Each structure stands twice: as C-alpha cells, then as structure tokens.
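## tool: complex_structure
## caller: assistant
## args:
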Amino acid sequence: MTTTTPTPSGRGVTAAMAPDRDQLLAPVVRRVIGWLTLVSLVALALFGLWGAPTDAVQGDAQRVMYLHVPAAWLAYLAFFVTAAASALFLIPRTRAQVWDRLAGASAELGVMFTGLALALGSIWGRPVWGVWWAWDARLVSTALLFFLFLGYCALRRVPAADPVGAAKRNAIAALFAFADVPIVHFSVEWWRTLHQKATVFNPELNPQIHGVMGLTLWLGTLAFTLMYVYLLDRRYRLAVLEADQADVELEQAILDRTRARSAHV
Amino acid sequence: MNLWREAALVAGKDLRIEARSRVTLGQVIPFGMIVVLLFAFALDPDRGVLERVAPGLFWIAVLLALLLAVGRAFAIETHHGARDGLRIAGLDGSAIFLGKAAAIAAQLLVLEVVVGIGVIVLYGVEIHGLGVILLTAAAATIGLAATGTLYGVLAAGLRLRETLLPLLLLPVLAPVMLGATRAFEDGLAGVPGDAWPWVGMLSVFAVLYSAIGVLAFDALWEEAT
Amino acid sequence: MSLVVRLRSVVCLLGRFPALAGADLDVTAGEVVLVSGPNGAGKTTLLRLVAGLVAPYSGSVEVLGIDLVADRRSARRNLALVGHETYCYDDLTATENVEFFARASGRGDTDVAAALDRVALTDAANVVHRGLSAGQRRRLALAVALVRAPSLLLLDEPHAGLDALGREVLAEVIREAPAEGRTVVMVSHELEIARPLVSREVRVEGGQVWPVASDARAPVSEQLQ
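## result:
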C-alpha cells in the first residue's frame, strides 16, 4: 500500500510567516567584513598599545579604555538590535523567523560585550580608582543590563513544544526587558547623584582628550562594530543550521512513527 | 461581560482559594518574617545598623516573598490543568492579568503590613512621613504585582520555571527596589519632599508594566506551553 | 452535512516528538466518533489539537468551520473538552467550580444546581474538589464541560476512573447528544463500553488516523480522495 507521506519540517511554520533567510549577509560581504574586522583589530592593538600617548593622570591603565568604551557601546547596540528585531517579529506584517534568530544572536553577543565592558571597567578601576568596583551610575546600569539579558538568553534556551509560540514569547520577553532599560538608567542616575554628591567621575580626572587618543577610541569602536556584525552573521548561521538539523531529525522521527504502523498493516 | 467584571471574577476566585488554602497567610508571610529576622543575624542588631538599613531590608523581604506569591498564583492554574479549562472558557487575557495582579497586590499589601510591623518592632524604627510611606507602598505594590504576574505567566508551564522566574524578574524589579527604599528613607528621615521623584518613578513603572501586561498577557497565556 | 472537524496532514509536536505525524480526520455534524488506538498513539494530542490547546506544527485544522491556526479563540467558543485532568480548582467546591467556569464562559445565567443534578453530584455540591472521590471528580469535570452547552464535546478517556453511576450519566449524555445538536469525539480504551454508544470508530496509530469499520488498510485521507 502507499502511505500518505506527511509534509513536516519548517514549511508549516514558515508558511505562516515571511520566507526564511539562510544567510544574514551575502558571503562576499561577510568575508570582506571578516577581513576588515581583523585588520581594524590589529590596527587597534598597534594604536592602543603604542600609537596613542600615555595618559598624564591615569598612566597606561587608561589604554584599557580603548576596549572598554567600544565594548560598552556594542552592548547597548546589541540590545537595541534585539529589541528592534523582537518588535519586528511581533508585528504580524513583518513576522519572520529571521527576526527571532537575529534577536537571539544579538542578545548573546550583547551579554558577551556587556560582560567584557564590566570586566574591563573593573580592571581599569583598580589602578585608577583604587577599587575593583565603584557604585557609579553607569556601572550599576550596565550590570543590571547584563542580568536583564542574561535572563532573556536563559529563557531562549528552554525547549518549547511550539516553535512559533516560543518565538513570540521570547520576543515579548525581550521587549519587557528593554522597557526596563530607561527606568533602570534614570533611577540609578538619580540615586547616585541625589545622595552622593561627589561621584568618581571627577571632571578634573578627565583632561582634554589627545587627538591620537580620540582616533584610537574611534578605531576601537569601528573594529568592535565590525566584529559584532561578523559574529552576528556567524551566530545567525549557526541558528539556521541548528534548525535545519532539527528539521532533518523531525522528518526522520515522523517517518519512523508512521513506518511502525505500515509494517504490520 | 466586560473586562472589569471578568477581572473581578478572576481576582475573586484567586482570593477565595487563598482564603481556603491560607498559603500566603500561613507560608509566604511567615517566610517574609523569617527573612526580617535573619537580617538581624547578618547585621549586628547592637550597632544601630538595622535601623538605618530597615527600608532596604523591608523591600528585600517583600521582593523575596513576591517570588513565592507569584509561584503560588500560577501553581493554582497548573495544578489540575485549570489553565486549559480557562483557555477553553475563552476569558480575555487582559482580564486574567488584571484579576491575578489584583489578587497578588491584595496579598502583598497584607504581607507588607505584617512585615512592616515586624520591622518597626524588631529593628526599632520610628515612623515619620506616613503619607509618603503609604503612597510609596501603594505604587510599588502595583508595580510588583503587575510585573510579577507578567513574568509569572511567562515562566508558567516551562520546565525550569522555579529557577528561571527569579532570574527574569529580579533585574527588572531593581528600579522598584531602589525607588521604594529611597522613598522610605526620605519619609523616615523627615524629608518627604525628597521622596516625590521616587514616588513618581514608581508610579511610572506601575503604569508602564500594567499597560504592557494588559496588552501582552493574552499572547503569553495562549502561546507559552 | 457540514464538517465539524477537518484535519489535513497535521503534524503536531510534543517537544521534538511528532505526536501526530500527518493526521487526517473528518467529523460531520451530529456524529459520535470513537477514537481508539494503543497508548502513545497520539489520541490525547489529537483531542487537545481540536480543542485549540496545542498548535499544529504543519497542516491545516478547521473546527466548527473556523481555521484554528488563524483564530483559536473563536474556534474554542463552542466546544468543550473533558481531559485527563478535571480543569478544576482544588480549594473550590463543586458548585463554585461550575459557577466560575460558567461565568468565565459567559454563561452566568446557568442553573448550577441543575448542572450538578444532571451528573448526580447534588449531594456533593458543597464539597471542595480536593475532598471529592475520583469518580465524583470525573463527573464534576463533565458538568463543567456541559454548562458551556458545546456544539462539539471532546471526551478524553472519560471512562477512566469513572464509577458505575458516572458511566450511566456519561452514556446518557452521549445518547442525548445528537438530539441536543451536539457532536461528540471520544477517546477511549474501554471499547466494549464505548462502542455501543458511537456511530463510527477511527483508530489512531503512529500519529495518523485510520478508519476501522469499512477498510482497515487505507488511511482516512485515501478514503476521502
């Protein structure tokens, strides 16, 4: 007898959504960005370690800033991308799996960059402030941001029976967390300014930024942004491959399930 | 039936279940009191530290108790699959959100009164600026209940929900913890004027997350399995 | 005759496991269909899918003329499911449970006493769910489903745990269904009890639906063609 072949796999899911994207970037674009990342990172290392002059007040410790500031910038950018992609997923007209995967990939990178910014800030703070950690408004908000999105990433890892439902749930959770970011920012800002007049960011400690220093900072931002885009593409691709693998396993599971019956009819 | 009547139906059901089972009264509130007691072991009660940090300790105790209250509020719905029954019944998600949040808020208020009396007695706190304190507690409680309900349904039905809920909920609630503590401090210190920005922030938080809850709860109630 | 249930090539997942793997099923209005099959065949998932509690992974599902993928809420309005669990609250009495779900379904004018009488629960009307026997709980679940006056009644193993009295009640409910304009889909293992009550039997095996009476060799989908 002929059994009806079930039509499983991603088709059913994606049928309700816009077509899926295999690749975030065209391979050529990705390769170019990859090489540019490498080149700019090497240039950053050269400028950061030797090109830029030693800071008059902070000494060599200030060089950590060439990594810390870009990492912090990327942290916020990554979370903004997560929130924007989540919003696009939730709007029925733009709903597509690409947004869900992009949100997840960007959040993971965001957690990484936030962690990096916190660690580097701490390493910088020890020689300059004399402590590993200070209750500075920006530090505290960044730490909270780290945990907000760590929770989001943990939520994404929980397996779900219904992939579309889970994607919707994750998108909503990302927006919950993102809505909290301005409130966290302002409340922490008030807290540290209303109650503690002299903050560690004493303006006298921040002299005029030397031209080469500024340039190095910009170079760092560029290098990290390129790295972010490259890693985002790679993480996205990994998510696509994982989904493909899951589809293959599912097709096999469906065949196994139906074959059991066909065998003894 | 309109939204408010449906919400009242859900809140009434939750409170009636609590009146019968006494889980909040018999377990969550005692838990809050134990936390208050433990802080006295952690911070030497003889050096006047407790009195100074009492507002923060109070809100920490409330926050931890909230986690239990939220867990309980959704355990009710999952126990005999009542959630499936409710979904088939077709109650509006917004109404379920408002009802469950109201029931949690009511239980939190009782908890705050009991824990508050505990803090006053055990830590030797003198009450000033009662008006500010009551307003702060009201705004903070609404914010806590709304956010708790929202994250409660997000985690309900998931594997690992017990561990996931605190990780998701506590960072979001950091501003409430911060604002409510500062406002209490200002009230107790006799400078209620300083507390108003915090009360304002707490109100914004409460309104924001209540609005998000009304909008988003239905999708989470439906989808998350 | 209009179709009450129409499934085409439905795949439905439990985690990563395809509980339904290409299921087709047509149920016409007024039918009483028995769904039989071995454990783990996908029977419960089939009913939960039709009840709009789980989403299909692929394929199309129409219930009461409404596309379930597009609009679960409307499709669920006129159906009821008696599942493995009672969908009731432990700390509410039989009366309170029926009343709550009636009001949640927008049927606040329901005669609760009559609903309990129909399932012979009048004596236990004021006993909390926790205190009911297994058989009484099953009958309560049936009462909660019937107050919705559903056009489609889904019964998942209704005989399991049911006492002799309950079996009589259930048989009566099923016999009266066509007269009340009600279609019934019942999953049951107790074929000797169930078969006399139904107009047709299908068998679920390996996540697909197979006809039983006429030609056991071809799946339903081929018969339809």
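## assistant note: Confidence is low (pLDDT under 50) at residues 214-218 of chain C. The longest helix of chain C spans residues 134-146. Handing back to user.
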